[in-house]
Structure formats: C-alpha cells, structure tokens
Amino acid sequence: MKLKLLVLGLFFLPFSNGSAQVLKEQWTKIHGSDKSETLNSLVELWDGQVIGVGSASTKEDAAEADGVIWILNSSSSDLKRKMVQFAAPGSDTFTDALQLKDGSVLILGNVKVKSGMYRCRLLMLNERNWTIIQDTIYDGLTMIYGEKMLLTRKGEIAIAGRVQGGPGNIGMYRISANLESIQEKAVIQSGQYHDLTGLHELANGDFILCGNAQKVGKGRTDGNYLISTISSDLTLKDLGYAESREINSINYAHSSYDGGLVIIGDTYISRSVRDPWILEIDRRGQRTNRLQLETKPFDRGLGIVKSYDEKYFCLSNYLNEYEAFIFDQRDQKKDAKEFIPANGGDFTVSRMLIAQNDAVWLGGNWMENARSKSQVIISNITSESAARGSTKSLTTLRISKAPSLVDANQDGLLEPDERAYVSFSLSNEGPEDFFDGHLQVNAVNLVEGVDFYDRCPLSFIESGGDREITIPIAGSNLLGSGVSDFTVSVLNQSDRSVLDLDFSIESIGDDKIEATTPPPAMVKIRWRAPFGAGQYVSRNRTGSETLELEVLPDKELRKEHFTIYVDGVPISDSKSPFAFEDISTLNDFAYKLVFNLELEEKQSGEPYEVYVQVMSDGKPYRSEVGTIFYQARRPNLHLLAIGPEFDLNYNGNDVRDFVGMFKDQANNGYFGQVFIDSLITKEATSKTAIQKQFERLYKRFMQPAGTQKIYENDMLIVFVSSHGKMINESFRILPSDYDETAAWSTSIDYKGDILYFLNLIQCSKVVFIDACHSGAAKSKDLVISPEISDALNLLAEQSPGISTITSSSKDELSYEDERWKNGVFTEALLEALLGEPVALQDEQIIWPNEDRDIDGLLTIGELFRFLEKRVPDLMSRRFDGQKSQTPFMPRKELNDKIVLYKIPSSE
Known about the structure:
It contains 6 helices and 62 strands. By secondary structure, it is mainly beta.
C-alpha cells in the first residue's frame, strides 16, 4: 500500500530572540492519490523520528479502511518514509499517538464492529522495530470512537471521543500504563458536541475538552464553540457553551510547552467571510485575552503552535491561498509566506508541533475539489535568521529526586525482555526558565543485552518548577547479569553541560537458572530513601526522619531478625517502632522495612550514623552506613508585598515601608531566612506578573528542596495595598495595566488568582489587604463600592487556613493621608511593628505585644487587637469622628500562637 493522503510540512523556524525572522519557501511537493487516506495525528519521538497515524481506504470499498502508521526520518530533506499497516477484524482507523516513559509508542485506534459502531483500541508498539507489544480492545464503552489521547502527570492515559449512542455525546477513558482500564464514563450526554478538537490536562489534574457545537442548519454551527472542564475522576464540572451574536468555531487546539492550551479559530461574519482569532487558556484553566488577528478578509485560522519566546506560528487561508506567519501580540502579524498553490481545494490541519531541532512540523489533509482524489502536500519553509534562542545563564538546575529504575515488576531490577525507565527529577532554582535542552546519556560500562536512549529531549522547566525526567531502558532476551553504570549530562541549546549526574542499574540474566551449585547464603540490604542516591543526607528541617530499605535474603526472615543501630547503639522497637512488610514472590524472599527516627540537634554538630543489621543463620549482615547531619530548623519568613502605583498616592510607600520593617527579621533568634518580593513598578504589577508571582509561591512550596522552598513550619505574609473593585459580584484587584473598558479580563480575581494558590500552600499564612483606598481616588469609574468589605470579609471566612486582616469592616471605606504618606491601616500596622506603646485620644495606653514578653514575639492575635483600637483612633483624629474605619478579622481565625514578627530589642 502506497502513501496517499498525507500532508507533512517541515518548517525550520528558529524562533530566535533577535531580529524578526523572514520565512522562505524551500520546496513544496504535491502527490496524487488513487484512494482515500487520512492523517489524524503527528508525534515526534525522543530519537527524532516523527510518526503519523491515520487510515487508508481500500480500492474495492471506500467505506472500509485500515489503520496506518507513517514513520518519517527527519534527518533528510526528502522525508524518507516507511509505512506500517496493521489489520484487525472489521474496519480500522488510527486517531492519535504518544510515547510512553519506557520509550514504547502507544497508538489510539478504533475497530468498526458494525455500521456506525466502534470499539476503542490501543496498540503498544516497540519503537525500535515497530512490532506489537500489546493490542487491547476495550469492551466497556463499546460505542466510543476514541479521538484524542494524552499521558497524564500521574502516568495514566486519558482518552476522549464520541459516544455513538447519542449524537454529540463525549466519553472518556482513564487507563493505566499497562493498558488496564481504570475508569470509563460518558462525561457529556447533552448532545452538544459536533466535533472534538482538543484534549488537555490542567495543572490540578482536571481535563479541558474543546470543540464545536452541534450543527443545526446547512453549513452552519449553532453559535459557537465549547470549552468544557472535566475533573480528574471524569465528572463534568463546566460544559462551557460559548454564546455570542456571531458564530464562532474552533479549528485547532495546541497544548503548549508551559502547560497551557492555545486555540485558533474564526468568527463567521457573513457568507464566506470569516475573521480569525487566537484564544489562550493557562495551566490553571483561566482564559486569557482573545486576540483578533489582523489578516485579510475571508480569512480562517487553521493551525497554531506557541514558541518558547511567547510567539505564535500560525497557518491560515484567504479564499484558496494558504500562508504561514508568525504572530506576536506586540508586533501583530508578520513574516507571512504563501506555501500552497492557489489552485482551489480545501486543506485541514491535523497536527502541528515544534520539534527538537527547532523545526515546525505540519500535518494535514488536502482535497482539490469535492470530486477529485486526495493529494499529498509536503512543504518546507525555513527562516533566513540563523540565530537560535538560548537558555539564559540564570537557570540553575538541581537534582530534586535521585535516579531510580521503574520497571513492571517494581523490584528495581532489569530482567530479560523487560522494558523500564530511569526516573529522576530536576528543579530549576534560577530566576529564568530553562527550555529546549536535552540529555546526553553515556554508558561507562554496559552489561550485554541492555538497550538505552543515548539522547533524550528536555524541553522546558520553568523558574521555580520541578519536572520528572525519564530515560528508557530495555533488556533483551539475551540480557546478562551485572551492573551497568551511566553518566548523564543535561545540555542547553548550545550543547553546553549545565548539570551532570551518574546512575547504575542492576540486571539479572538467565544464567542463574543453569547454575550447578547453589549460591552462598547471603542477605542483600539496599537503602531506598533517603540514602538511595548515596550514603549521606543533610537535614535542616524537623527532627523526624523516615528511612526505608529493602532486604533480599535467601531464606525466610521475621521481624525479630532486624535491629536498627544509631551511632552504634541498638534502638529498641518501643523507642523507634518500624513497619515490617513481606514482599516475597513465589521465587524469591524479599522484605521492606520502614522506620522513623526522632532526632535532636547535637551540640557538637556531629552527624548521626544509621545502619540496620539482619541476622540469618546466626550470621550478621549489615546495611551500608547512612550519615545524617541534622540541625534544628527555624522557620523561614516569606513576604510578598504588592502595591501597584495606580490612581493612589501612597500605596507604593505602603509597600516600601512595610517591607522595610521585615528586612532585619532574618536570623533574629526566631526566624531563619527572610525572602522578600516587592511588586511596585508598572511592569512588576501587571496582571500577568502578579499572577505569575503567586504561582511561583506555590511552586516554591511544592519543590522537594531548594533555597527558597516553603516548608510547613514557615511563615508566609502577603501584603496588598491597591484599588479594589467589584465586577460581576467578584472582588477584583486592579493591576497597573488595568483597562476599564475590559475590566474583567484586565483585573485580578482575588479568589481565583490569589486565594487559589494560597489555599494550596501548607504553612502559616497571613494576608493584609489595604485594597479599598477611596480618599485619593481620581477616576469616577473607580469609586469604591461598600460591597467590597463584605466580599473580602466573606472570602476571609471561607479560607480557614489563612489569617486575613482587612483594612475596613462592613459598609466602610479605607483611607490614606498625606501627613503619613500611607494608608491609615498601613500606618497603624507600621506602629505595631515598631513595638512602642501608643496613647489613644482617651489617654489609654496600648502595646502591640500585650504581655510585653521578654522574647518580643508579636502574634497575629496581639497585632489585630492593637489595630482594631489604633485605626479608629487615627480616623477620629483625622476626620473628627465624621468617618469610620475598623479593621476586620474573622474571630474564628484569631490565634495568639501564630508568631508574625519579632520586635527588635530596644537595648
């Protein structure tokens, strides 16, 4: 069978950060066809190959088709191609593909069992020789036609497709890595969907489905597109039907490198007149601004990918002319290049992707007219710019999880004919994102029969982010016994090494079966955590340390055979109880031991030495010694202060003065380090910059380790001094780029953009909000509604893990004054942090720390009781009792034990 209906465009597009690129057509190839073939998806593999999946009809019966895989070698301009065809009962079609962590390739297909009815099918293939490892047909939702597939962060496979039982219904599967069904569900049964354009996973594990609504008239769709949210357990959360006066359609959706979803579509204005647009959804599911493309009339947006420098590579058509162009939000459309002859016909995009070598692949289908046979178009467009963007030197990569072998048997050993992968995690502790790098893997010594990838892509690790890295490893049927050692270099775009690490894997061949004499009696003891990567671990956290090891003896053992030693002294089970688990198999004995040590900081600073001894046949076997340096950890203080200089006189001063009070809190006997982020300037207080900062706080909490990691015993303070506004019953903070003509999309949702991340961070959290300044408001459109204080107080009560103090109570406004050059609330707050006594108008003397304890620790409860007296007192002095302002804090959150600040000694 020959390759017929396939469009593959290879665009060598560097996306450099330098001058504008100029697109140049290198060549275009058009091939005829004598039967119908369809490309549905393109996927680049780790070794640089690109595969296309689809279907090919037979000459005899156009309604019958076979699933087809095209394998393309991207190293040559003629695109050498090889076709692998798989037959199955009935008619097949392949709709999507992905590569699993062990390197194998998974193909999503469908088997036609009778007219209009399909069963979902998954093929697992060996990517080296394209033989079938596993072929599974799912009988659960027998009438689902699987269309889109992705590999989730949990390592599961998510599939979405049409349920034939009802027009417009969508079903989903969750499937494990070994292709066992976990869950299946018809998630949308309202008959809304006409087609399914995209399947995407959000950062919280929810899924996004997008497509177009059911047709209700000839050549039309009923208004618009659908963007639906599905929870990780396949429950519909939001159908997301988009309604407007125009008719909108989604033509293509692309999951971008940063975890977001980029969509291109068009608006049907009148007959044959369309207006293209771009819509982006971030990794949290928030929709950013919809961008209108300034293109020719009658234009349609057909395809899009997002580059690392935040530009979009787009494909569109004007009547019968097709062009590729780069779109930048700042510069608008540029560098357009027509690359398909204007000879009539219709072209649809199946998949676009940015490859490892900076190429942009484009796959789709072309038909010259309704009666002609399909044609193949392959186009190569390059850029005259030879410069490549490079990973900035400010990226700092660290190993956050040591390498380990993940295999099907879960024993950490590679066996004959077993596929596995080495897993470890990297964190980026630098202030710049790391992108478009790769791994170079070299074997120092290699056991016979071990196969591995010597080069693996490493596309993107954002600043403050953490990412699992996998290297496929496989054992042949001739696998020998022994240990293979590897070195891994993490290389940036310039092929410069930015990090090196080593790992080893142990393989077990078949020679032990042929042994004529039994092996000597022995017990193998292996640390799993935290000593798996070496015999040293440093802890500066809490005094509780959990250790785990695996024991592989040649005979049965019991719990009493184990003894834990700390500094050479045996620890009794009553002092340090441990869990003993028998994980033996039919052929081998194996045990897992997990125990917890309670450590105290040694005055001498010497480390603890820990090992485990096992008695078998009267002989002692000892594990390697693990060394723990432990220092009692003081809580760190993390402070984020936001004061966009927008329509207020003194909120920038509020931030500067408030932050200044905390600079001396580092290493003061209570707090350890202090990390301060001040957002004041126009650039730093834009909507995007503020949203990113809260996401970075969450990443600092989630990262396994790092200088700025937020631990559970840390203190996080957020101080906001800004205008607030109620928009559609939602409290919004106004950033520096606020536009009152687009108030919703240019303001910050306090609940969705701020509380969302704060609720995910597990530590002591205090939020100060002075976001209702009205005394200096200049714009009539920004007059503060009394509803703001109600909304803030309600949100504070709904966030029990956050101690929130707002500057005013119900039906009150907040004020600032030129004599202090601060808001009244901030002025009182600064007085409290000074720790000095204050005389009120009624001559009452109040102290910030009521008990005036020797250590000077100021708790959140003490602070609030000071503020609720001092703020009204300042207001009374300023306005002669004509205006009121009283701070608010939910009483149930009042906790005198939360230490916020240490008042400096007056000595």
